[in-house]
Design a protein that fits this description.
The protein is mainly alpha-helical and 349 residues long. The protein has 14 helices and three strands. The chain is globular.
């Protein structure tokens, strides 16, 4: 009889556990676990897993992709903006959608940090995705997961790789302007500075070079590369690594004074196509930002070899980019009962 009671109790517990897991996908999958930042193995961690919305919002990814497809068809550059949004989110407090929060009585927005001010964009596309998801599955899909799905979708719609995306992030109730100013690598970074900032997130040199390859799409403002054209080393001379013809072309876009918001493609050969031309351009002295160029000339670690390898083999770059995006998406997510699922991505509930 005692055995029967134990067995019956076990069955009831198992049934209740399964029922709760179905109602709240993620419970019973290690939610709330805290490991090393970045999920060092690159494998899904912290209870994030691709089927997270399988029962609670099975149409989530279709909704994201349908909004993205229209937005990118209307403005191809939007793909790069959404990819960058995910990157600038994950490097601050982890992948928690803190970058989406507007100023309020309790929030000092990250949108006004030096790396983000006047340059980060794509918020209206995220708003539209969120509105559609709230209609279909109220308060179910987090803004942090929307950013991760939008980054992958933007890569795919630009001709790049796809990957199986771990989901289940929740949204922060806080933002950090100071961390945004200090953790996002600036465009004039030295190679050692880039490596240090990536290591702080649990990302290594391979991740650094592969994720820099996201610059195969998108543009940069004159303000981010002006130093290379006119005063690279504090001596009023240009960066000697710039190929001459490319240098003169950039000068026509980016004058010595003014024009800070003028833009130039990061990969002028195929600015809206996700490919490996970015790495070839670096080899030819035609990388736009100092942070691109130093991957080749920085003389630290193995970044030069990686640039050459990805320039030679696009498939190798695509495979590693997908792995590194998964790893970056695993940086310190909020899971379980931490954080919340915002109704409006710009405001805490």
């Amino acid at each position: 009889m005692a055995y029967f009671k134990v067995a019956f109790g076990f069955l009831v517990t198992a049934f209740l556990s399964a029922t709760v897991s179905l109602a709240h996908p993620g419970l019973g999958f290690g939610w709330g676990g805290v490991g090393a930042p970045g999920g060092q193995s690159g494998a899904p961690s912290y209870g994030l897993f691709p089927q997270f919305y399988q029962f609670s919002c099975p149409q989530a990814e279709d909704i994201v992709m349908s909004v993205l497809e229209k937005a990118i068809a209307k403005e191809p550059r939007m793909a790069a903006s959404l990819l960058r949004l995910h990157f600038h989110d994950c490097f601050v407090q982890g992948c928690d959608a803190s970058i989406l929060l507007d100023n309020s009585a309790t929030i000092v927005s990250e949108k006004n940090s030096l790396p983000n001010r006047n340059s980060v964009r794509g918020f209206e596309v995220i708003d539209e995705i969120k509105a559609r998801l709230e209609e279909a599955c109220p308060q179910t899909v987090s803004c942090a997961d929307i950013l991760a799905m939008a980054a992958r979708g933007s890569t795919v719609f630009s001709g790049g790789p796809s990957w199986e995306l771990p989901l289940g992030r929740r949204d922060s109730k806080t933002a950090s302007l100071s961390t945004s100013n200090n953790n996002i690598p600036p465009p004039n970074s030295t190679l050692q500075n880039l490596i240090t900032l990536f290591q702080r997130q649990g990302l290594d040199e391979v991740d650094l070079v592969a994720l820099s390859g996201g610059h195969t799409i998108g543009v940069a403002r004159c303000a981010t590369f002006k130093q290379r054209l006119y005063n690279q080393n504090g001596n009023n001379l240009p960066d000697q690594t710039l190929e001459r013809t490319y240098y003169y072309g950039l000068k026509s876009v980016c004058p010595k004074s003014g024009g800070d918001n003028n833009i130039s493609p990061l990969d002028f050969g195929s600015p809206v196509k996700f490919d490996n031309l970015y790495f070839k351009l670096i080899l030819w002295g035609k990388g736009l930002l100092n942070s691109d160029e130093v991957l080749l000339t920085g003389n630290v670690g193995n970044t030069m070899e990686l640039v050459k390898a990805y320039a030679k083999d696009e498939n190798l770059f695509f495979k590693q980019f997908a792995k590194s995006m998964i790893k970056m998406g695993n940086i310190s997510p909020l899971t379980g009962f931490n954080g919340e699922v915002r109704k409006n991505c710009r405001l805490v509930n």
